[in-house]
C-alpha cells in the first residue's frame, strides 16, 4: 500500500471531557468495537483512591490505564484508529493539553445532567486555538438530564461554536424512547438493551409504531426537530473541519445507546492527517521522508530500568524500527531501535508507522518536548508547541543548601523536559514552580529525590490566575504578594492574580494594561 493510502486510513483523535462525564465508559465501548477488549468493565479501577506520593511505581500502578494505554490503536472498518488518552482527575497536567497537539480531531463528551463543566472549557480552548475539529457526544441520556435545546444553547454560548445535532432525543431517563437520526433519516428506538431498532422515517406511519409516535416525548421531539430544521444552523462538513461547527450526538455510553451510529459517522467524517507547519513550510503527510515530533516524555515507565519513553507523532513518511533519524534541534543522528506501540494494557513492539500514528521511542536522555525528528536531507523543525497556563503555583527550595548544584541542575533539566514550569519572582528571584495539576508536583518531587538526590521543599502559594504582560507595561507598584509579579524563563513578565475576582478588579482599574491569557491566544 502506498504512503498516501496509509495516511488516508488514519483517524487520530482524543476524547476530552470533565471528570465523570463518561470518557472511560465511552472509550471502553470503542475498544469493544475494535475488538481490543471482550467485555465492558475491563479498563476500570483507575480511581482506586489517591496514589502514594512516595513511590513512583505506585503512581504508575494507580494510574492504570492512563499510563499504559496513553495511546490505543485498532483497525476499524478499513480505517486505522488511534485514540489518545487525555488524563483527567488527579492526572490532569500539561501533558493533557499537549496531547491535543498530536491529534487531528477531538470527541468532546458532555454529561447531559450537568452541561458544560470547567475542564471541558479549558480543553476546548486548546482545540479552538489549534483549529481542531470537534465532535460532541452528549452522554447519559438514560438519566433525567437538562433539556436538549438548553444544552445546545449552552454549548453555543459558552464555547462560541455553531452546533448541528446529528440526532435528536425523544425523552430522557425513564421516558427515553430513542433518537431521530437526521443523517440517515430514521428513528432509532431504544429497547432498554443493546439492541436498537432502526425505523426509516417513511415507515413510522405503519400501524405497529402507532403506540410509539403517540407518546408525548416522541411528539415533543418531533416538534423540536421541525423547529431545528427550519431555524437551526445547516450542516456543513467544511465548517466542521475548520472547527467552527460541532456535530452533536445524543446517546448513552452506559446503556449503551447510539454508540455505533456515533462512531461510524464520526470515523467517516473525522479528518485524516493533514500537512503540518514547519520552519520550511507545510510538510505533506505523504512526503516519503519520515518526520515527526515529540509531544510527551514519560519517565520511568519500566520498573527494571530508570528509562524514559518519548511519545512521537509521525507527521510524514514511513517509520521503520531501527531506522536512523536526525534530531533537528542539534542535527545529531539517532538510531530508533527500541520503539513501542501502546495497546490497552500491553505494549507491543512496532515495526512501521505512518502519519497520524503515535509511537513510543526509548529516550536516552536526548529529547525535549517539541523536538522534531527527521529522516531526509532537508533540515526543518515543526512549529513550537504552545505554552499552557499553569494553575497551581509553589515556591521551591532545596532542603539542604549544600546541594544547590544538583538542585539547580535537576530543576533545569526537569523544566526543560517540560515536566513543570519555572518562574522567578520579581526582585527576589525566588524560584516559583507552576503546574496544571498536583500530579506534576508529586512527580517533580519524586524525580528530584531519585534522579538528583535532592529533597525539595514546596510551599504552596495557592491557585493563581496567570496573565502575561508586555514589558513596557510593567508597573511594579500595581503588584504585591497577592498579585505576584514574576518572569518566565524567556524573561516575559507574568502576573499571578490571586483569583478571577482580583483579575477583573485589576482590569477595571487598569483598562490600558494588556493582559494575555495563553488559552485565548490564536
Ligand atoms: P470519566 O471520569 O469521564 O472517565 O467517567 P466514567 O466513564 O468513569 O463514568 C463516570 C460515572 O458515570 C461512572 O459511574 C459511569 O458508570 C457513569 N456513566 C458513564 N456513562 C453513563 C451513561 O451513559 N449513563 C449513566 N447513567 N451513567 C453513566
TrEMBL record:
GO terms for biological process: regulation of translational termination. Pfam families: EF-G_D2 (PF22042), GTP_EFTU (PF00009), RF3_C (PF16658). GO terms for cellular component: cytosol. Its main location: cytoplasm. GO terms for molecular function: GTP binding; GTPase activity; translation release factor activity, codon nonspecific; translation release factor activity, codon specific. The keyword Chaperone does not apply. It is found in: Cytoplasm. The keyword Nucleotide-binding applies. Residues 8-276 form the Tr-type G domain. Keywords: Cytoplasm, GTP-binding, Nucleotide-binding, Protein biosynthesis. GTP binds at residues 17-24, 85-89, 139-142. It comes from the Bacteria. Increases the formation of ribosomal termination complexes and stimulates activities of RF-1 and RF-2. It binds guanine nucleotides and has strong preference for UGA stop codons. It may interact directly with the ribosome. The stimulation of RF-1 and RF-2 is significantly reduced by GTP and GDP, but not by GMP. Belongs to the TRAFAC class translation factor GTPase superfamily. Classic translation factor GTPase family. PrfC subfamily. This is Peptide chain release factor 3. It comes from Virgibacillus necropolis.
Amino acid at each position: 500500500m502506498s504512503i498516501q493510502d496509509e495516511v488516508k486510513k488514519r483517524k487520530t483523535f482524543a476524547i476530552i471531557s470533565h471528570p465523570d462525564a463518561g470518557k472511560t465508559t465511552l472509550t471502553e465501548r470503542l475498544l469493544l468495537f475494535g475488538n481490543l477488549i471482550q467485555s465492558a468493565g475491563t479498563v476500570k479501577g483507575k480511581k482506586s483512591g489517591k496514589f502514594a506520593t512516595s513511590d513512583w511505581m505506585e503512581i504508575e500502578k494507580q494510574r492504570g490505564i492512563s499510563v499504559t494505554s496513553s495511546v490505543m490503536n485498532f483497525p476499524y472498518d478499513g480505517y486505522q484508529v488511534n485514540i489518545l488518552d487525555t488524563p483527567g482527575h488527579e492526572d490532569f497536567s500539561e501533558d493533557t493539553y499537549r496531547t491535543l497537539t498530536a491529534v487531528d480531531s477531538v470527541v468532546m463528551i458532555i454529561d447531559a445532567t450537568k452541561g458544560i463543566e470547567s475542564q471541558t472549557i479549558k480543553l476546548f480552548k486548546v482545540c479552538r486555538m489549534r483549529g481542531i475539529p470537534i465532535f460532541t457526544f452528549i452522554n447519559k441520556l438514560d438519566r433525567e438530564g437538562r433539556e436538549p435545546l438548553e444544552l445546545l444553547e449552552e454549548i453555543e454560548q459558552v464555547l462560541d461554536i455553531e452546533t448541528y445535532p446529528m440526532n435528536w432525543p425523544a425523552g430522557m431517563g425513564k421516558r427515553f424512547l430513542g433518537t431521530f437520526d437526521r443523517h440517515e433519516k430514521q428513528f432509532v428506538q431504544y429497547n432498554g438493551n443493546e439492541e436498537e431498532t432502526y425505523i426509516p422515517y417513511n415507515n413510522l406511519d405503519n400501524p405497529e409504531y402507532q403506540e410509539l409516535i403517540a407518546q408525548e416525548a416522541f411528539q415533543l421531539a418531533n416538534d423540536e426537530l421541525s423547529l431545528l430544521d427550519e431555524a437551526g444552523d445547516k450542516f456543513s462538513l467544511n465548517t466542521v473541519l475548520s472547527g467552527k461547527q460541532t456535530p452533536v450526538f445524543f446517546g448513552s455510553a452506559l446503556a449503551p445507546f447510539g454508540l455505533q451510529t456515533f462512531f461510524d459517522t464520526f470515523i467517516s467524517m473525522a479528518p485524516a492527517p493533514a500537512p503540518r507547519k514547519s520552519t520550511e513550510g507545510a510538510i505533506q503527510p505523504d512526503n516519503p521522508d519520515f518526520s515527526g515530533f515529540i509531544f510527551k516524555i514519560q519517565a520511568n515507565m519500566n520498573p527494571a530500568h530508570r528509562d524514559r519513553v518519548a511519545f512521537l507523532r509521525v507527521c510524514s513518511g514511513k517509520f521503520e524500527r531501527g531506522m536512523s533519524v536526525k534530531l533537528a534541534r542539534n542535527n545529531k543522528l539517532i538510531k530508533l531501535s527500541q520503539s513501542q506501540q501502546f495497546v490497552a494494557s500491553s505494549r507491543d513492539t512496532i515495526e512501521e508507522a505512518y502519519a497520524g500514528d503515535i509511537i513510543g521511542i526509548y529516550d536516552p536522555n536526548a529529547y525535549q518536548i517539541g523536538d522534531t525528528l527527521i529522516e531526509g536531507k532537508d533540515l526543518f523543525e515543526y512549529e513550537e508547541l504552545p505554552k499552557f497556563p499553569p494553575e497551581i503555583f509553589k515556591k521551591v527550595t532545596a532542603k539542604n543548601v549544600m546541594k544547590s548544584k544538583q538542585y539547580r541542575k535537576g530543576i533545569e533539566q526537569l523544566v526543560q523536559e517540560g515536566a513543570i514550569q519555572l518562574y522567578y519572582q520579581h526582585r527576589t528571584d525566588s524560584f516559583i514552580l507552576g503546574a496544571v495539576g498536583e500530579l506534576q508536583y508529586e512527580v517533580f518531587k519524586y524525580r528530584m529525590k531519585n534522579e538528583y538526590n535532592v529533597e525539595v521543599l514546596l510551599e504552596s502559594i495557592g491557585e493563581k490566575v496567570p496573565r502575561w504582560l508586555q514589558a513596557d507595561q510593567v508597573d511594579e507598584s500595581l503588584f504585591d504578594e497577592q498579585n505576584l509579579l514574576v518572569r518566565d524563563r524567556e524573561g516575559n513578565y507574568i502576573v499571578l492574580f490571586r483569583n478571577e475576582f482580583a483579575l477583573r478588579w485589576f482590569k477595571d482599574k487598569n483598562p490600558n494594561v494588556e493582559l494575555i491569557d495563553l488559552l485565548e491566544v490564536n
